[in-house]
Amino acid sequence: MQRRRGLSPHTNDRDPLELIARLLVTGSYRVPLEGRSSRPTLRPCDVAGAMGYMRGCLERAAAMAVATRAGDAEIAQLSAQAYRRVLRQVLGLRSCPLDLHSGADRWRVRMVVYDAAQELVWPERRIPRAAAARRAKMRLATYVEIHKVASGVLQQALADARAEFGRRLFAG
Fold this sequence. Notes:
Blueprint: H1 16-24, H2 44-52, H3 57-68, H4 72-91, H5 103-121, H6 129-135, H7 140-169
Helix pairs in contact: 1-3, 2-7, 3-4, 3-7, 4-5, 4-7, 5-7, 6-7
Protein backbone atom coordinates (compact mmCIF):
# COMPACT_ATOMS: atom_id res chain seq x y z
CA MET A 1 0.00 0.00 0.00
CA GLN A 2 1.41 3.38 -0.98
CA ARG A 3 1.95 6.06 1.56
CA ARG A 4 0.22 9.37 1.03
CA ARG A 5 3.51 11.30 1.22
CA GLY A 6 4.94 9.42 -1.76
CA LEU A 7 2.25 10.51 -4.20
CA SER A 8 2.91 13.34 -6.59
CA PRO A 9 0.43 16.22 -6.48
CA HIS A 10 0.27 16.08 -10.28
CA THR A 11 -1.22 12.59 -10.51
CA ASN A 12 -4.74 11.34 -10.03
CA ASP A 13 -3.60 8.55 -7.69
CA ARG A 14 -4.99 10.25 -4.60
CA ASP A 15 -7.88 8.94 -2.59
CA PRO A 16 -11.15 9.69 -4.41
CA LEU A 17 -12.90 10.31 -1.09
CA GLU A 18 -10.47 13.13 -0.43
CA LEU A 19 -11.51 14.63 -3.75
CA ILE A 20 -15.18 14.35 -2.81
CA ALA A 21 -14.57 16.08 0.50
CA ARG A 22 -12.52 18.87 -1.02
CA LEU A 23 -14.87 19.51 -3.91
CA LEU A 24 -17.99 19.57 -1.74
CA VAL A 25 -16.53 22.22 0.55
CA THR A 26 -16.84 25.70 -0.89
CA GLY A 27 -13.58 27.47 -1.46
CA SER A 28 -10.95 28.11 -4.05
CA TYR A 29 -9.54 24.58 -4.16
CA ARG A 30 -8.40 23.42 -7.59
CA VAL A 31 -7.14 19.97 -8.37
CA PRO A 32 -3.46 20.39 -9.33
CA LEU A 33 -2.95 19.02 -12.83
CA GLU A 34 -0.18 19.43 -15.34
CA GLY A 35 -1.15 21.94 -18.02
CA ARG A 36 -3.85 23.57 -15.95
CA SER A 37 -4.53 26.17 -18.62
CA SER A 38 -5.27 23.58 -21.29
CA ARG A 39 -7.23 21.05 -19.21
CA PRO A 40 -10.50 21.86 -17.43
CA THR A 41 -10.46 21.36 -13.68
CA LEU A 42 -12.86 19.19 -11.74
CA ARG A 43 -15.97 20.93 -10.54
CA PRO A 44 -18.61 19.91 -7.99
CA CYS A 45 -20.92 18.94 -10.86
CA ASP A 46 -18.29 16.37 -11.93
CA VAL A 47 -18.35 14.88 -8.45
CA ALA A 48 -22.16 14.83 -8.44
CA GLY A 49 -22.18 13.13 -11.84
CA ALA A 50 -19.68 10.51 -10.78
CA MET A 51 -21.65 9.86 -7.58
CA GLY A 52 -24.87 9.61 -9.58
CA TYR A 53 -23.41 7.01 -11.92
CA MET A 54 -22.24 4.77 -9.10
CA ARG A 55 -24.25 1.56 -9.15
CA GLY A 56 -24.31 0.50 -5.52
CA CYS A 57 -26.49 2.45 -3.09
CA LEU A 58 -24.53 1.19 -0.09
CA GLU A 59 -21.23 2.13 -1.71
CA ARG A 60 -22.50 5.62 -2.56
CA ALA A 61 -23.84 6.13 0.96
CA ALA A 62 -20.60 4.91 2.54
CA ALA A 63 -18.50 7.21 0.36
CA MET A 64 -20.63 10.25 1.14
CA ALA A 65 -20.76 9.47 4.86
CA VAL A 66 -16.99 9.11 5.17
CA ALA A 67 -16.18 12.06 2.90
CA THR A 68 -18.54 14.48 4.64
CA ARG A 69 -18.06 13.09 8.17
CA ALA A 70 -21.79 12.43 8.41
CA GLY A 71 -24.00 13.06 11.39
CA ASP A 72 -26.14 10.61 13.32
CA ALA A 73 -29.06 10.62 10.88
CA GLU A 74 -26.86 9.85 7.86
CA ILE A 75 -25.02 7.14 9.78
CA ALA A 76 -28.38 5.60 10.69
CA GLN A 77 -29.34 5.57 7.01
CA LEU A 78 -26.00 3.98 6.11
CA SER A 79 -26.45 1.29 8.75
CA ALA A 80 -30.00 0.60 7.54
CA GLN A 81 -28.69 0.10 4.01
CA ALA A 82 -25.92 -2.21 5.23
CA TYR A 83 -28.21 -4.25 7.49
CA ARG A 84 -29.33 -6.80 4.88
CA ARG A 85 -25.79 -7.52 3.69
CA VAL A 86 -24.62 -7.96 7.26
CA LEU A 87 -27.57 -10.22 8.01
CA ARG A 88 -26.68 -12.43 5.03
CA GLN A 89 -23.09 -12.65 6.25
CA VAL A 90 -24.18 -13.49 9.80
CA LEU A 91 -26.48 -16.22 8.52
CA GLY A 92 -23.53 -17.62 6.56
CA LEU A 93 -21.41 -18.02 9.69
CA ARG A 94 -20.64 -21.58 10.69
CA SER A 95 -22.36 -21.21 14.04
CA CYS A 96 -24.75 -18.28 14.06
CA PRO A 97 -24.48 -16.80 17.57
CA LEU A 98 -27.98 -15.30 17.53
CA ASP A 99 -31.49 -16.54 16.81
CA LEU A 100 -32.42 -14.23 13.95
CA HIS A 101 -36.05 -15.35 14.09
CA SER A 102 -36.30 -13.35 17.29
CA GLY A 103 -37.04 -9.66 16.90
CA ALA A 104 -34.82 -8.74 19.84
CA ASP A 105 -31.80 -10.40 18.24
CA ARG A 106 -32.45 -8.66 14.93
CA TRP A 107 -32.49 -5.32 16.78
CA ARG A 108 -29.23 -6.27 18.45
CA VAL A 109 -27.70 -6.84 15.03
CA ARG A 110 -28.99 -3.41 13.97
CA MET A 111 -27.28 -1.85 16.99
CA VAL A 112 -24.00 -3.56 16.12
CA VAL A 113 -24.25 -2.41 12.49
CA TYR A 114 -24.87 1.16 13.67
CA ASP A 115 -21.84 0.97 15.96
CA ALA A 116 -19.70 -0.30 13.07
CA ALA A 117 -20.94 2.49 10.78
CA GLN A 118 -20.30 5.08 13.50
CA GLU A 119 -16.78 3.72 13.91
CA LEU A 120 -16.20 3.84 10.14
CA VAL A 121 -17.15 7.51 9.92
CA TRP A 122 -15.76 8.68 13.27
CA PRO A 123 -12.90 6.32 14.25
CA GLU A 124 -11.74 8.69 16.99
CA ARG A 125 -15.10 8.29 18.79
CA ARG A 126 -14.74 4.53 19.20
CA ILE A 127 -16.33 3.20 22.38
CA PRO A 128 -14.99 0.13 24.22
CA ARG A 129 -16.43 -3.13 22.96
CA ALA A 130 -17.43 -4.25 26.44
CA ALA A 131 -19.52 -1.12 27.00
CA ALA A 132 -21.13 -1.45 23.58
CA ALA A 133 -21.93 -5.12 24.20
CA ARG A 134 -23.46 -4.24 27.56
CA ARG A 135 -25.55 -1.51 25.93
CA ALA A 136 -26.78 -4.00 23.30
CA LYS A 137 -27.38 -6.63 26.02
CA MET A 138 -25.14 -9.15 24.28
CA ARG A 139 -22.22 -11.31 25.28
CA LEU A 140 -18.90 -9.73 24.42
CA ALA A 141 -17.77 -12.61 22.18
CA THR A 142 -21.02 -12.47 20.19
CA TYR A 143 -20.82 -8.70 19.87
CA VAL A 144 -17.22 -8.85 18.66
CA GLU A 145 -18.01 -11.56 16.12
CA ILE A 146 -20.94 -9.65 14.61
CA HIS A 147 -19.03 -6.36 14.75
CA LYS A 148 -16.23 -7.95 12.69
CA VAL A 149 -18.75 -9.02 10.07
CA ALA A 150 -20.42 -5.59 10.00
CA SER A 151 -17.07 -3.77 9.81
CA GLY A 152 -15.97 -6.06 7.02
CA VAL A 153 -19.11 -5.38 4.99
CA LEU A 154 -18.78 -1.61 5.46
CA GLN A 155 -15.05 -1.57 4.72
CA GLN A 156 -15.63 -3.59 1.54
CA ALA A 157 -18.39 -1.20 0.48
CA LEU A 158 -16.06 1.74 1.07
CA ALA A 159 -13.23 0.11 -0.91
CA ASP A 160 -15.62 -0.63 -3.78
CA ALA A 161 -16.86 2.96 -3.65
CA ARG A 162 -13.31 4.31 -3.86
CA ALA A 163 -12.51 2.17 -6.87
CA GLU A 164 -15.76 2.85 -8.71
CA PHE A 165 -15.74 6.58 -7.97
CA GLY A 166 -12.19 6.84 -9.28
CA ARG A 167 -13.17 4.99 -12.46
CA ARG A 168 -16.29 7.13 -12.98
CA LEU A 169 -14.55 10.42 -12.27
CA PHE A 170 -11.44 9.89 -14.38
CA ALA A 171 -12.95 7.71 -17.14
CA GLY A 172 -13.51 10.52 -19.60
